[in-house]
Structure formats: C-alpha cells, structure tokens
Fold:
Amino acid sequence: MSNFIMISGLVSKLNPTDYVGFTFFVGCMAMMAASAFFFLSLNQFDKKWRTSVLVSGLITFIAAVHYFYMRDYWASFGESPTFFRYVDWVLTVPLMCLEFYLILKVAGAKKSLLWKMIVYSIVMLVTGYFGEVVDPSNAWIWGLVSGIAYFAIVYEIWLGEASKLAAAAGGEIQKAHKILCWFVLVGWAIYPLGYMMGTTGWYNGLIPAGNIDVAYNIADAINKIGFGLVIYTLAVKSQKD
Structure:
C-alpha cells in the first residue's frame, strides 16, 4: 500500500502540460521497452553475439533507471537534472565504446583500443561536468578539453585503428561500424551544443530554460536505442551467415 502511495505521488507531480517532463517520462518508457526487447532476445544468439546484445540492454536499462529519477527531479524542482544525467552518461557512454570493441574483436581488436576509447569518453564527461557544474567560470577551458576528447573518439572510429579493423572485417561488420560512427558524429554532437547552451556566459540565452533537456532526452533515446538496434541487426544477420 505504501509503495502504491509513493508511486502515485510521483506520477501526480507531473503536470500534463509540462512537455519537458513528458519527454523524461517517454524517454524512461522507451529505454525500458528497449531493454526488455534486448534481454528477451538473448537466447536466440550464440555466445559470440550474446555479450554485444546484453550490453545494448544494459545501456538502455541504466538510462531508463536514471530517466525515472530525472523525471521526478524535474517535476519536483523544475530544474535540469544535470547530476543524474552525467552519472547516466559516465556509465553508458563507456559501454557504447565497448560495443565498438566487441564487434571488431573478429578483426583482431585488442583491449588497448577499448581502454583508449573508454579513457577518452571519461575525460570528455568528467571535464564536461566540471565546466557545467563545478567550475562554470572556466567553462570554456573544460569545454575545450571535453571537445578534444570527443574528437579523439571521432578520429579513432572514423580514421584510426577502429576504422582500419572495420575495413579488414568487411561485410556486415563494416556496415554496422559505419552506422555507429554516424551516431557518434551526428547524434553525439547535440551534447557539446547542449553544453554551450546550458552554461552561463555562452549561448544559454538562445533557448528557453528546459528546452535543452528536450533535445537531450530525444537525442539520448535515439542514440542509445539506435546503437542497440544496430548491434541487434548485425547479430541477426551474422547468425544467418
């Protein structure tokens, strides 16, 4: 009974006209549905692809849990849940980097590639958090370091070792790798733009408060679910070969 009252209380906080809160709610439901899909499909794959699909499910599940808390935070305070969002990213973005490594193992990818991309992603996120929350007076410096780390990831997957491994693997793996590369280049671009628009002294006056959360929520759903669907499709096609 007490759990029912708690859940009812959380739901009642969301104003039906609050479109920002609505995107948090829909994001949570979409991520949870994707997680269920990926987890329930695991048995159809052999060990080679099961880990990749499992990681896809973990990415969307972690995001779904954080979106539940972010929706409640927004409904309670009307403020962007920056802390929860960065916690979500610091857990899920390295896992998305792991996906590149897992699909490229067939072409001989080494763990050094994985750790290099994970380090880049953590630097990108930690410095972004410092610039947005801890030391906003020096946001441009932290943003510069974060941007360099982001472009290091872009370089690695488009032109670096990961790109060469994908070319060596060829076929469906190379196609899937290229689609994931576009997700990083185009889909992830919303995050540095959001950083500039959400940090005082940059471009935060260009859009009304809360609208950047709508962009983040939509981008998160597309990027994380899309990543998983690309991996799932690759696994299905590879099982048929």
About this structure: The CA atoms of residues 183 and 189 lie 9 Å apart. The two ends are 52 Å apart (CA to CA). The chain has one domain: 2-240. Confidence is low (pLDDT under 50) at residues 1-12.
